[in-house]
Specification:
This protein is an alpha+beta fold. A hairpin with a 2-residue loop joins strand 13 (461-463) and strand 14.
Length: 638
């Protein structure tokens, strides 16, 4: 089971399984800590309590996982959208439910199996074999006893037995995989007429009586919600991180435990290619593709730019970027391609290379031999990482300490004076607002609006990488504005709505004319209309290239049975209206599926395993008592 998870850890269906069992290995990402101890329960699952400390450690681990996956793309807004807090708590609850079921079934883990599993954990094998020194150092660094850790691993292995049972009941047929393959491989092209509602907005005449009636009809949409003015103290990790306080022993231990995962890079090549496809073992098709790639080779030998030729000639998705495949390691490409690419010198172009996808010409533009970074090269980075990890606990401790002190009667002004910080005052803030200096803003605003009496102070509120203590200064009641006060916004929405109605009416009229025998070409030179043709697109998803996200239109398109067939109605998107007709349809071919059959079977199997696992956990949840500490959930999870 663990081998399966290690080999497939990047796939989304496996993430639920990793999430269920990851808590056992939390100590690899930094120690537990914080003011509130294990006795403070966030959730109770049967007889098992999930502590606030356990939750916070698991959340940090998940956030670190997303940082590794997204890198610089992980903005505060994206982190908020990922809803790490709720996801983490759900994972812990699911894990506790599974553990309870494993115990109920009397599943056992032999001591020999436990010892083998621990000895195979990479963190304990710095030199490729189990090291008792690395094992003891890791446990000591996290304040864990061997007995406690081994109990945790045993519990995880019990859960894995349940997961194996669920997976064993999943079966996938080749026909089932082909039908799913068709969702992405069937391609359709549409003709369209676009009636631009945006262009019609300026022509909409504003009648005061009509505008007043529109405002009255939609008045609640312009209601100004409850608001508050608050002051807040901000606690950030940067104020508590002290890299100079990290010992050499801690740095060396971290390096040894994480050398393979963090400080070792694999051999990589960067290359462009030009592909001419052929299908299966069709000799005629192969000969045609070979003749085409030979002509490409002649152009390159004559001195033409590789990237420009790739844009014109390559028959795969990389053509638009000049055949650029980016950087890749060994095992990422099919064997003939890999061997040719890694054998090339920088800026060297290959001869024709044959793979199961077709004929390639490859140009290598970069190479990294990989290797292990020395301890001295990464010492400062490790010190900063460990200091930041420690700061996560320290900043929480400081904010939680101060929140408890205020609840015990210490004034917020005393806290401010002792900390040497300032209270920042806000203007009126309301639900749905965005605060420039606090991102993401939603949980902060929610905590602020939850305050009742003037002067009331919140608990420590976790937002992004900071904690906040909020004090209520003023409450502003919800109210409906007068039309004069909201006229600019109302007029804008009025124009938009009327223009959209006009565009839809025009599109409906065109559709009726087409049904009566008119041609799309009859509208080619009509002002205010745009005629176009989409790129080919698959059935999956809702996006139509050149138009946008129109799931209903896409469903109707794939229901059409012949070229030229009109879709049954006009569709609107972002104020514009579209009349659509099927232009062409290219069905998925079984021989193309055969080239990717194994991957497709695996993908469907993983999806079904995910569904079976979800259903299994949900059924278990229905038979066990689960309660949540809503106060802690409100303060630390949402």
């Amino acid at each position: 089971m663990l081998d399966y998870l290690r080999n497939n850890k990047s796939s989304l269906p496996v993430q639920i399984v990793l999430g269920l069992i990851a808590i056992v290995f939390i100590f690899f990402m930094g120690g537990a800590g914080g003011l509130i101890g294990a006795q403070t329960t966030v959730a109770q699952v049967g007889d098992q309590a999930i502590s606030l400390t356990e939750y916070q450690d698991a959340r940090r681990r998940n956030e670190q996982y997303y940082r590794e996956q997204y890198g610089q793309r992980l903005t505060p807004q994206l982190l908020q959208a990922l809803d790490v807090g709720s996801t983490t708590l759900n994972q812990l609850v699911d894990g506790a439910v599974l553990e309870a079921e494993a115990t109920r079934l009397g599943l056992l883990v032999p001591d020999e199996s436990l010892r083998y599993e621990i000895r195979e954990i990479d963190a304990f094998r710095p030199e490729g074999r189990f090291s008792i020194d690395a094992y003891n150092a890791a446990l000591q660094r996290q304040g864990l006893s061997a007995k406690r850790f081994e109990e945790n691993v045993r519990q995880q292995m019990l859960i894995e037995q349940l997961v194996d049972i669920v997976r064993a009941g999943v079966h996938v047929s080749e026909d089932e995989a082909f039908e799913e393959y068709r969702q992405s491989a069937d391609k359709i092209v549409l003709d369209y007429i676009k009636v631009s509602g945006t262009d019609l907005r300026d022509s909409i005449k504003i009648d005061d009586a009509d505008l007043a009636a529109y405002f009255e009809e939609n008045k609640e949409e312009y209601r100004i919600g409850d608001g508050v003015k608050v002051g807040y103290i901000k606690y950030t990790e940067s104020g508590f991180a002290e890299p100079d306080a990290i010992s050499d022993e801690e740095i060396e231990s971290y390096y040894n435990l994480n050398k393979d995962s963090e400080f070792t890079t694999k051999e990589q090549a960067g290359a462009r290619h030009i592909l001419k496809k052929f299908k299966g073992d069709d000799d005629a098709a192969k000969a045609e593709a070979r003749a085409a790639i030979d002509k490409v080779a002649d152009r390159l030998k004559a001195g033409e730019d590789f990237a420009e030729v790739a844009k014109e000639e390559s028959e795969d998705g990389s053509a638009a970027s000049g055949g650029d495949l980016g950087k890749f390691g060994r095992g990422a490409m099919v064997k003939p391609f890999e061997e040719a690419a890694f054998a090339l010198a920088i800026d060297e172009t290959s001869d024709v290379v044959e793979s199961r996808f077709g004929y390639h010409i490859i140009k290598k533009y970069s190479y990294d031999a990989g290797g292990v970074k020395s301890l001295e090269d990464v010492r400062a980075d490790i010190a900063q990482t460990l200091a930041n990890d420690a700061a996560k606990d320290l900043v929480f401790d400081a904010a939680a300490d101060d929140a408890l002190a205020i609840q015990d009667g210490v004034s917020i002004d005393t806290i401010v004076e002792e900390r040497g910080v300032d209270i920042t005052e806000t203007d009126v803030i309301r639900q749905g607002a965005t605060l420039e200096d606090i991102t993401p803003s939603a949980s902060f605003i929610q905590a602020a609006l939850a305050l009742g009496e003037i002067g009331e102070v919140s608990e420590a509120v976790h937002v992004g990488d900071a904690y906040y203590i909020i004090v209520l200064r003023e409450r502003v009641a919800s109210h409906l504005p007068e039309l004069a006060d909201a006229r600019e916004v109302v007029e804008k929405e009025f124009r938009k709505t009327r223009a959209e109605d006009a565009a839809r009416e025009k599109a409906d009229s065109i559709l009726n004319d087409l049904k009566d025998g008119k041609s799309l070409d009859d509208y080619a030179d009509v002002d205010g209309l745009e005629l176009g043709e989409t790129d080919g697109f698959p059935k999956q998803g809702g996006f139509i290239p050149g138009i946008g996200n129109l799931p209903a239109a896409k469903e109707a398109a794939f229901a059409a049975t012949q070229d030229g067939e009109l879709l049954p109605r006009a569709y609107t998107l972002r104020g514009d209206a579209y009349v659509l007709a099927r232009k062409s349809f290219e069905p998925a071919l079984r021989e193309d599926f055969d080239l990717v059959k194994k991957d497709r079977l695996d993908a469907v199997r993983r999806r079904k395993e995910q569904g079976a696992m979800d259903a299994f956990v949900q059924s278990l949840k229905g038979s066990i008592d689960i309660t949540y500490n809503q106060e802690l959930v409100q303060a630390y999870v949402q």
